[in-house]
Amino acid sequence: MSFDTLTGAHFRLALTPEGWRRNLSVTFGPDGLITGLREDDNPDRLPVYENPVVPGITDLHSHAFQYAMAGLSEVRRNPVDSFWSWRDIMYFFALTLSPEDMQAIAARLYLALLKGGYTGIVEFHYVHNDLDGTPYARREELSLAIFEAARATGLDLTHLPVFYAHSNFGGLAPTEGQRRFIQDLDGYAAMLEALRAPAREAGHTLGIAPHSLRAATPEEITRLMELRADLLPDCPVHIHVAEQVKEVEDALAWNGRRPVEQLFDIAPVDRRWCLIHATHLSDDEVARIARSGATVGLCPMTEANLGDGIFRATDYLAQGGSFGIGSDSNITTFAAQELQQLEYSQRLRDRQRNVLASDAFPNVAANLWTRAMQGGARAAGRPEQGLAPGGMASFVELVSPEPEALAAVAPEAALDFHVFAGRGFHVGDVVVRGRRTVQAGHHPLEDRIHADYAAAMARISERLAARDADGRMGG
Ligand code: NGQ
Ligand code: ZN
Fold first, then answer.
1. How far is the CA of 240 from the centre of ligand 2 (A)?
2. What is the CATH number of the domain that holds 265?
3. Which of 175, 192, 332, 393 is most buried, judged by most C-beta within 10 A?
4. Which ligand is in closest contact with the Cα of 84?
């Protein structure tokens, strides 16, 4: 599929790192980066966007396959359901998928994400093995399914093959339900090597991801850093950390150190790192992450869905910490909803309003959108300038569903409506590095992507029904 390529555009109103600006002529280079930006009345007759335009956000944390189980784990089955009982269902579901299913689900998800305000994705990919736990003939088979989904949809991919070897702190043996995730270091290195050429050809970025301090030991993380220096110097490194209180307790029980303390003990955490969730932090941990330049990968809707807890966003942002947002379990695909949930979690805790604004951006939505764009790009190993020279030519056009009704509202409020008013804006065009992937709300391959997804879901539900004698999914 080839998309229209734009060499520039004229924005009547665009959200830049300096705030909203009017009448901007912007030119794009062949690499999809912004080469020039100036205020004028469009002497070069570039294509004009009359509607407000915002930079696309990089979704910095996704497990694509979980999109297909969204909504299927909302039934109480235990006296107290929790993250851990959800995880059992997720493991059960992960044991159902073929490579073809993986590709169809990821393509359907990535299509939805493009229409949800995202132009990039960081896929934290840990389902590697065949159903019985043995590697595929091509061990990178399922990663290639993700590559294909990104190619078909046009979403900008940073792919993180995940290293996963244990079930808890202290190098405990993995469980049977984790068998599709498990690799040793040699197998992992072989997979990374096999992915380098196809990633380069397709323009994807590769990174490294120890799943968590539960799934990788300190020695293994040290070895992964050596592997990174050999194969992918300076690539992004992501890890799940301190999401659940139980993880903090297990960490303390193992060696007396909290998870984020353990991470800083063993790894050179810097701006190339992304700490996913980081929900439960001490004052010292908040300060250390903020100082390190690492990005915190917040997944507000999933964290709410799983009952994780509330991230200390006010403290962290006051110290200049970098953050981005991830759709994680993909229960929602709208960036606006993630940002709304992030702000509301702080309002509910502090009993205040307009909490996550800044002096530069008193509008909460513009502040959160801009910072999440920057943090997401940093976490993906991409330029983080936004709609400015050197930034990515990746943007989203916001179209009002009721232009007449909103005519009296300043156009600059479009993003406030998009994030905080349920009757938000639609996306019109979505341009990724200069390529128009969505035009007036439509993707050229959407019919096929929907049909492939429906076929995959039919196969999956048959397989689930066959295995699901005790009704663990759905109703
Ligand atoms: C995951 N998801 O890897 O999909 C994790 C659950 C775990 C989230 N934490 C598994 N949301 O952390 O052990
Ligand atoms: Zn995750």
1. 6
2. 3.20.20.140
3. 393
4. 1
